[in-house]
Amino acid sequence: MPLKLYAYAFLGDFILLYPVYALLFSDSGLTVPEITSLLVIWAVSGLLLEVPSGALADTLSRRALLVAAPLLGAAGFALWTAVPAYWAFAVGFVLWGAREALESGALEALVYDHLDHDGAAEEYAKVMGRARSVGLVAVALSMAVAGPVFAVGGYTGVGVASVLACLACALVALTFTERRAAAHDEDPTGYLDTLRAGLAEARTSPKVRSALLLVPAVTAIWGELEEYVPLLARESGAATTAVPLLVLLVWVGATSGGLLAAYGSRMRARGFAAVLAVGGLALSLGAITGHPAGFAGIAVAFAMFQLGGVLADARLQERITGPSRATVTSLAGLVTDLCTILALLVYGAASLVLPHSALFALFGVPYLVIALVLSRSGRRLRPRGEDQERSEVIP
Prior knowledge:
The protein has helices spanning 2-13, 21-27, 32-59, 62-82, 86-103, 106-117, 124-173, 191-204, 206-225, 229-235, 243-259, 261-264, 269-288, 295-319, 325-350, 356-362, 365-381. The longest helix has 50 residues, at 124-173. 77% of the residues lie in helices and 0% in strands.
């Protein structure tokens, strides 16, 4: 299973459009607020489909959803390549949002249940950390390759390559083996019952709820900022052909963060808070330089945020005990989407008066606040009873 998962993660993120699509929008005549509106459309699409698709993954085949997801991505990228206009970009982002919603919850649940079936649930953080790192390696390679491909084939070349990667990703998903926990008489059997069970677990279990909220607190802001990294690179004075290399540096940092997850699974609350604090400081200091050299600091920040995101997700999977694992995981994705939309709106409005460097620096501050809150309230967030030993890890 891990090797197939890594292949799926690699092909799903080996998208040559990733490092240049913001430039595609800009070169097609779109302003920063218009680009931001597209990102909001993307986020809203995922928001509306997040929880329904999670319940669908608990009711139907998770493997089938993971096959369909990259096919939607392929359709969107094909549209961008064929029709570089605002409406086409908007439709493409709707398809992209649907793709992410189908994968969110379904992938985590499929992997966790597969490992749990084999008695290796404790390996989840390591496996998913590596999978995310493989995905980031794919992003990094796409950044390295995008420049030469763009130089030869322009936006059409990188678009066609992106479509082919999505099609290959769907083929890999066909080889997945789906395993689930043994069903009990009281387990939900229908879509609505499954949805209600997931919502009930998130609402009534304090330890699940706290772990669920930790995921968006860590991932929402930097997940939004990554979309503007190419524009920050161009603002710093980098040429268009050099932008993918600076973005590559940032994603090398994020990749290392995923690999560190295997060693951080027993991290205490204050250690986790320190990770976020280091990330926030590195982000702000790296961005405020207004120089390409500052991207080294941004790379460190993304490493810390990726590490924190993997550990937060692993903690959530450990605490889910009901049959609606994908639904509960999708709830975390829903809250993340809401926070991302808010961050996008703030960024888009502020971009009218502030440069990208100042905005990146300001967006590092919330991580410092979150780190302070976690360091002070970690003890109150720890579960009681039989989970007390595990509660010494992340709150």
